[in-house]
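Notes for week 9. Today we move from apo structures to complexes. The key idea is that a small molecule is not decoration. When we ask for a structure prediction with zinc ion present, the ligand SMILES becomes part of the input, just like the chain. The input block below holds both the sequence and the ligand string. Read it once before you look at the output, and try to guess where the molecule might sit.
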Amino acid sequence: MTLVDNHNHILLAEITEMLAAAKANNVSEFSITEHVSQFREPRESIRFGSIHPSGRIFQSLKEYNAEFRKADQLAYSGMKINRGLEVDFSPRFETKLGDFVNQEEWDILLCSVHEFEDGKDIEKSVRGTADTALAYEHWREYLRLEQKALESDFVPFNVLSHPVRITRASKAAPPELDDLLLNLARVARRRNKALELNGRDIDYAPELVRRLATACSKADCRVSLGSDAHHPSEVFRNMGVAMALVKEFDLELTQQLRQP
Ligand SMILES: [Zn+2]
Ligand SMILES: [Zn+2]
């Protein structure tokens, strides 16, 4: 199997450091997918519910593109480098954000749900709550929003990233979770999108990512592998685990990246 890592950030580390880490892990296809909220224009015009409090802000897409030219000059022999973005989905601002992202063509676009419909950060909303019913409701709302994202054409994204990230806030998943995941995977399959096996999610919820892989297998939906690295040491994190799931469940990897 060729080694792929389709989800990486450069807001806290240099692109050259991230690429060197990928090379050291023998990665043959590597995607840089910065958060749209790290770009000045959307950051100023949209009140994102979830943002990194620190880290580089790109003044423009031009400045971002220049990073990839740096990468080209260094010629990481044989490694395919994809220029991408991680795009937040929220009904509040999908059209506005779509206009920003669709100014250019991308090698890969990830779509993520980071906030609830009222704009509250999903990782902060339910943490520590003793109210199980409320926790379940947050899970259901999160998965409903992800389904909405999959149905949306706001940007031509390839991958729905970290589908079970809500577990960060609420460990208590509803009893019908496997049905909800299967439903999500079926929508992904119908919409021709991949679901992500995310390295950060594998860190704290390996069992959940396994249940996600099971759902993908049942629905015959493709998966994408991404470490969600923000630092060089996190590049390719848990991708061995993800690849083992791909093999065990005979999953198909996404092949929707734009060809050069
Ligand atoms: Zn994310
Ligand atoms: Zn990310």
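Strands lie at 4-5, 29-35, 80-88, 108-112, 159-160, 194-198, 223-226.
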